[in-house]
Design brief:
Length: 223
């Protein structure tokens, strides 16, 4: 009875909702960070199976670490309490209303919070598209990490991780591809210009990448 009463009190107080929301955020962030780390191992100067050797080695390393962690917990089961406490603390911090609002925030990067509040969803979407197009420039696309670095360089999306940034863009119907090639920067997760709707009054259809293009905009290099 006491356990049931404590659970009911925790639910009424919003504790369970906050932990559940925070756990989902933490899990998504960790999974996105690990996936991005594995993908970054792929070498753009190689092709075929040779290019995939480094990502496969990283996956194998993660599997070995997981197996070692499992064996340690079997020998020292009390460590599960410490791991659980650590996870709950991280979930509690991530599940704050501020973090949840930031999780949903994908306002146009060039607008202030006050301006964003006054914008209609349509205006916000158009401003976001204009910013992404500007970041792409004359290239085929822009890598997600470079897009986030560009925003954070201008004081926006501070503290936002790559997985959360991707989820925010996708909530605003900005398609994100798993593989986007940018000349001089290799292939990784990003936004391709062909996936963006054409600006009003512009001819439809993809634009070819200009021949002899030089180095990309240095402002979009990841910090």
């Amino acid at each position: 009875m006491k356990a049931r009463a404590a659970a009911a009190w925790a639910h009424r107080a919003g504790i369970t909702d906050r932990l559940a929301r925070g756990s989902a955020i933490v899990a998504r962030r960790r999974a996105a960070a690990l996936a991005d780390w594995v993908k970054r191992g792929r070498r753009a100067d190689l092709t075929g199976w040779r290019a995939a050797l480094d990502p496969l080695a990283r996956l194998l390393g993660l599997a070995v670490l997981a197996w070692i962690g499992y064996q340690i917990v079997r020998v020292l089961p009390w460590l599960m309490w410490a791991l659980t406490a650590g996870w709950c603390w991280a979930a509690w911090r991530a599940g704050t209303p501020t973090s949840a609002e930031q999780e949903r925030a994908a306002d146009a990067p060039q607008s202030s919070p006050t301006d964003a509040a006054k914008r209609s969803p349509e205006d916000t979407y158009e401003a976001l598209l204009a910013w992404v197009r500007e970041a792409i420039g004359e290239r085929q696309g822009v890598h997600l990490r470079d897009l986030l670095a560009n925003a954070q360089h201008n004081g926006l999306f501070k503290g936002l991780e790559l997985g959360d940034f991707r989820a925010a863009l996708e909530r605003w119907d900005i398609p994100v591809r798993k593989r986007v090639r940018v000349r001089g920067l290799g292939v990784t997760v990003g936004v391709h210009r062909d996936d963006l709707p054409a600006p009003a009054g512009a001819p439809s259809g993809p634009l070819p990448e200009p021949e002899g293009q030089g180095d990309p905009d240095p402002r979009l290099h990841a910090a």
